[in-house]
Amino acid sequence: FSGEVTEVGLVYMFNLIVGTGALTMPKAFATAGWLVSLVLLVFLGFMSYVTTTFVMEAMAAANARLCWKRMERHKVGATAAVPPLTPRPKVPSQRRGPPCVFEITDRIEMGQMASMFFNKVGVNLFYVCIIIYLYGDLAIYAAAVPVSLMQVTCMEDGRQHNDTDQCWGPVRRIDAYRIYLAAFTLLLGPFTFFNVQKTKYLQIVTSLMRWIAFVIMIIVALTRIGRGQGEGHPPLAELSGVRNLFGVCVYSFMCQHSLPSLITPISSKRHLALLVFLDYGLILAFYSLLAFTAIFCFRGDALMDMYTLNFARSDVVSLPLLRYFLGLFPVFTISTNFPIIAVTLRNNWKTLFHREGGTYPWVVDRVAFPTITLVPPILVAFCTHDLEALVGVTGAYAGNGIQYVIPAFLVYCSRRDSRLAAGGGPPNRHASPFRHTFWVGFVLAWALFCFLFVTANIVLSETKL
């Protein structure tokens, strides 16, 4: 969307953030209680906004660093071209700040920013964090599609089923899930071995399908509640469900790793932080509407891991075509994203082990890297299809690093780098509203607290079992 106005760019950000994580949010809300869920959702939305402004500031600082390098090369070239006895033309001082300083004009991805501002250990840790997050993403996608297909083709009534229940004759539900998983792997797995290009129109279609599905679900839930058919009586607070809720909320606000692709093409970047804040407000309102209509429409024990499956029942949606569209909607949207995420993960593996001037043997490049990309998430999906737990763990650990730790260190190191390079030069016009170092420390402290809380909760839960 190169050259588009700010509002269009923010629509893309809205579409990016509101994705698969939103479909697992209703069950997480019902498990943790509506009040604690609302408070945590608002707070985590605020924290995500803080780190989003951190990334935008680091992007501006990275652009300034490239600008200064270009100026230095220009200065050296101008000096070399002038004869020794000829007076040298004056080159503008970088302290005055040329037009390109702190303007977000070049798309600089987070990996490039990490290479600019981190040492070698920091860069490697960055890629490890990204890789773990993408593995979690692929495991969620690999489980979500077979789960949706299993629920739609095996569901006969509105009650919950066990994995050992029958699906088709002697075939159990868990067997049907694994058959669908095998088919999913055979159909989409080979894309990991090639490059995925020209997905623009496919992404437009899937975005349109997503919004049609979200609107239908909200309208159906509101209609049932208005007719007095709402069965949900969610608790006020249930602390045992906070662990998964935290991971789901972090995962649902994830956009920091894609900000360079979203922000850079926007033509007008005036008041960017304010407009992003309004975008987050709309996302919060949407998440609240989706989750609250869900938890008051359906009983907590009836809510599925994938919320769309609650509408694949004839007693909820009478029109068969609509019922199958909602039940199978994740299949279409997730299937288009899986190859893109897989290729991204494969390329990150290559970058992590890249050596200057070196190339990989054909077997390593075309076989080994795609294999280590594809096999682990498929194995995880084979072992479990608990989507709420997969989203929760991915968000609580790798998501914690991408959304909090990496942006905090990026903005801290970029500020130090800018001070050393520019001295008393122009200020960063895209500086975060949270300029004080306190906010960097607060974000890191919060990330550490969340890591310890989730880990302790998992350990205690396993001990009780």
UniProtKB/TrEMBL annotation:
Does Transmembrane count among this protein's keywords? yes
| Signal peptide positions (record) | none
* Bilayer-spanning residue ranges: 32-56, 117-136, 177-196, 208-225, 275-301, 321-345, 438-460
- Tell me how this protein sits in the membrane: Multi-pass membrane protein
Keyword annotations of the record: Glycoprotein, Membrane, Transmembrane, Transmembrane helix
Annotated compartments: Membrane
One Gene Ontology cellular component annotation held by this UniProt entry:
membrane
| A Pfam family matched in the record | Aa_trans
Q: Which parts of the sequence belong to the Amino acid transporter transmembrane domain?
A: 13-57, 111-415
Q: Does the keyword Nucleotide-binding apply?
A: no
The UniProt entry, under PANTHER family, shows: TRANSMEMBRANE PROTEIN 104, TRANSMEMBRANE PROTEIN 104-RELATED
What the record says about family reads: Belongs to the TMEM104 family.
The entry's protein name is Transmembrane protein 104
Organism encoding this protein: Ornithorhynchus anatinus (Duckbill platypus)
